[in-house]
Amino acid sequence: MNSSQLCFNVWIVLWGLLSSGIRKKYVWAVLVLAGLGGIQRASGQSDDFDDGNDTGWVRFDLNSGTGGQLPGASYTFPDDGFGGKAYHILTPAPPVPNAGPARAFSYRTNVYDNFYVAVDVVGWDNSLNQAFGFLIRASNIALGQTTGYVMNYDPNQGAGGRGQFQINSITNEAPTTIAAANISLDPTHRYRFVMTGVASTLTAKIYDFLDLTTPLVTISTEDSQFPQGVLGVFDFSRVNAASYTNAITGKADVTFDNYYASSTAPPSSIPPGTPHPIPDMPHVASHDPAPRANFYSYTNGISFTAKTLTMNAINTNALKLFLNGADVSSGLAMSGTASNAI
Q: What's this model's pTM, rounded to 2 decimal places?
């Protein structure tokens, strides 16, 4: 190795709580460098599920879809690890195969054409052959009738636990993949799913919660089949028909948090970054060296910018920098405004 270069993993940990103390949740932006009649028009919705309910959401599963003839999903609100609650959707395998595989949708009733939607994926059962993510511009939501799009991650799309990130068009619940990228997510990590739709342009991204400055993967496509509809989240078992009723393999299981939807994107950090899902919370907006850099001259030092995207002040005394597991925070030099520390 050349003596003027250093190969390293840097962990920048922002434990800072807002000086105003507006919420009890810890801020931990960690960087690792290496046709629906009578429905409202969209004006923007968000839900952190900290109230322990999904009031304002419409649930659809095999129970509601069959008029109570089959068991439905369970919708619970476990701790999210930040002092609040998350949204756990566990969809059991049906006792009979007549209505198809286990699946559940949870959506808001506002109709969107152009949209921005984001949600945290807190956890999922990585052993299951399932899909989970966003329900997009959906209409006619019913068994065998739903149309629109889905943006989904499939942890077992390929043999050996190989995952895939997709955008699918949906006609009568039948998917057609129109964009895809191979990626296997770590079930011990937390991720931020983000999707935008501007006219026929659909773009989807996944961010590791450890680094919201750069997406792990981006997929995009052009499709004009479904110009408007509702937005929401879903899980869906991908097993074949012979396994629909298998109580162990035929279920779907995912936990979401911090849902946000609007006709336009919220105030952002430096592109291609995405804002922290908890409003007003400080997060790392940019850093040097760049994400996933392998070699970097030590003479350039390490720098990062922490922002709140509001006027709320950052407690700079709570900023911590860890380099290869060692706390080197004493070497930090702070500058910038109270809500934009450098």
A: 0.79
